[in-house]
Write a structure and sequence with these properties.
Order of helices and strands: HHEHEEEHEHEHEHEE
Structural class: alpha/beta
CATH architecture: 3-Layer(aba) Sandwich
Number of strands: 9
Radius of gyration: 16 Å
Largest sheet: 7 strands, mixed
Number of helices: 7
Distance between the termini: 27 Å
Number of domains: 1
Helix content: 25-40%
CATH class: Alpha Beta
Low-confidence stretches: none
Shape: globular
CATH superfamily: Vaccinia Virus protein VP39
Strand order of the largest sheet: 5-2-1-6-7-9-8
């Protein structure tokens, strides 16, 4: 495993980027990606403006891997107008829809990670049906309601290699702390027998694939 020390310029870029990942969780994501990046490509479901993609991209550079980040960039339910996490600066007024893609591209370009981070623009469930490449690590941070969260797990978790990692963000055991869909996916992964928890940092859970049976 490579020494998991994030370059200061990339750490600053990640901390400045628009997004919702606390620094401690971002560093844990980076360290996890460094540990598993040599096993295959890194894949992120849910890109938003690229904050977590910087942590993953930094690890990809150190391990000689790449990050595939999948998002339709029209925003998940919780960041739509009228919801708590809505950012009106991301609205495309021509179409009346969210569009985080331009900010994501600026974020990754400014960080100098365009060679490491590959953007796939499309809906997760559609892209997953076309995907065949084994993954060293999967990071699920897409839609946080039950249907999209479970679709992300069903569509992508089978591609994680044995010995690879599944990371899930915004896992809250108590409904008072946050939405329950990522927690339910976490329980589903553990209950499948295919994954075992190896790390916890804030709302981030890291599971290692230990067998078949997703």
């Amino acid at each position: 495993m490579v020494e998991a020390i994030m370059p200061p310029d990339l750490l600053k870029a990640a901390e400045r980027a628009k997004g919702f990942m606390p620094s401690a969780e971002g560093r844990a994501l980076f360290e996890t990606a460094c540990e598993y990046g040599s096993r295959g490509p890194l894949c992120e479901i849910g890109t938003y403006c690229g904050k977590s993609a910087i942590y993953l991209g930094a690890a990809a550079r150190l391990t000689g891997s790449v990050v595939i980040t999948v998002d339709h960039h029209r925003g998940s339910e919780e960041i739509q107008p009228g919801w708590a996490h809505h950012d009106p600066t991301l609205m495309d007024l021509r179409f009346g829809k969210m569009d985080s893609l331009p900010v994501f591209r600026q974020t990754i370009a400014a960080a100098g990670l365009e060679d490491e981070v590959i953007a796939v623009v499309g809906r997760s469930e559609q892209v997953s049906r076309l995907w065949n490449t084994p993954l060293g690590m999967l990071f699920i941070d897409g839609g946080h309601s039950e249907e999209p969260a479970n679709a992300d797990y069903e569509g992508w978790a089978p591609h994680v290699v044995e010995g690879g990692a599944l990371a899930i963000h915004d896992v809250f055991e108590s409904p008072e702390d946050g939405g329950q869909a990522p927690y339910h996916v976490y329980l589903r992964a553990i209950g499948s027998g295919a994954f075992a928890e190896v790390r916890k940092e804030g709302s981030l859970r890291v599971l290692r694939r230990v067998g078949p049976g997703i």
